[in-house]
Amino acid sequence: MRTSQDEVEYYSWLLNLGNGELSNVYGLPEDIIEIPNSFIEEGDLITAIFGDSIEITDATVEAIANKAILTLLNNDVHTMNDKILSQVQGEHSTYCSVDTIAEEEGVILTYYPAEFLNSLNPTGMPPHEIKLKPGAVIMLLRNLNRKHSLCNGTRLYVKSLKAKVIHAVALNGKAKGQTVLISKIDLISQDNNLPVQMLRHQFPVMLAFAMTINKSQGQPLDIGEIYLPLPARLKLARENFDYPEKYWENVLWYNETKVELFDRNKTRRVWRRQNAELHPKNTIPTVKHVGGNIMLWGCFSAKGPGQLIRIHERMNGAMYLEILSANLLPSARALKMKHGWVFKHDNDPKHTARVTKEWLHKKHMKVLEWLSQYQDFNPIENLWRELKVRVAQRQAQNITALEEICMEEWANIPTTVCANLVKTYRKHLTSVIANKGYTI
């Protein structure tokens, strides 16, 4: 969406949006709005703002710095910035961080190899690998000198790049025009989603041709276009819809799951008379202490279930690689996968660690990467449900028995069940597309 001064229609629409006064002629849900076609950039967004080739000099840097692409997610910001940097003239320099774990009681450092830490992008921290060019627009991610207004959110442009120092000039705020020398510092992650505190020694900057809407607050921009990608579920379904059924038959699906000893979450239904809900025959005895659970790793294809193993410790990158080495290829051979078979796993950090990628590349494996938060796209989730129903019927009394029953029932799952899950997969994608990517 363009924000030029003469676009009265846009500002009127924006005010109506803020006041909740937009019309809803199409009967859309309350949390969805329609954006008029006149506000949508139909061509390439980067080219529309920055042009095909970007030459940044002292004379042009301010005009370029006053343009930006705004979006919602950091992943989209990094993707956009990388694309824009590739169009900036000149050679890039790459700076890699040194990542470690803060020493804490009970934390085993070998569980977190450097390759795994490098793959993480905690909120508010620069990436492990930063690529920069002279002229690139960057943003500070930490307060370096409040007295001189070099604070988190200050934008600068790169004058020159040295091995250990970035020579930059501030573009906004009271520090505008100041020359700044930036060196690497120690940054501590504040991301509650990580089980430990991570230390990253890196330049406290990121590219700022694109930024999140949150980061754009207070930034003096003449042109700001908002990038609203398709819902990830819809995009995922469209990207994979054109594959024929035969393609999915040659995919080896993988995931992990947790199986409870006494499954508290399953629902049971019973026919009973009115007001007889507390009769012993209509109730299920409960266990005060649940009794534990086990984690399982498994895979399957249209030809049947592959290997199933129990995971005894917290999964990390090193352990994941060990599991793949010992179980993936034997499963493919046992299932007689055809030449060129595809391995499907999601973009969980332990799956995308450099050592994992190198191992998969060395083994010449084709990988179908997925988004980790959309597990319903993986038909193995239906197979896990089948397994848990079978296991619950056996009523294991201890963890050892639970593991044995899981192994037995996994091996007993009919090939036809696996084949039907894969056969109906394109129908699932069709439903997601028909529902605009929303839950079906």
TrEMBL record:
Source domain of life: Eukaryota
Alphabetical list of InterPro entries matching this protein: P-loop_NTPase, Pif1-like_2B_dom, RNaseH_sf
Pfam families: Pif1_2B_dom
Domain DNA helicase Pif1-like 2B intervals: 115-161
The protein's name in its UniProt record: DNA helicase Pif1-like 2B domain-containing protein
Organism field: Ranitomeya imitator
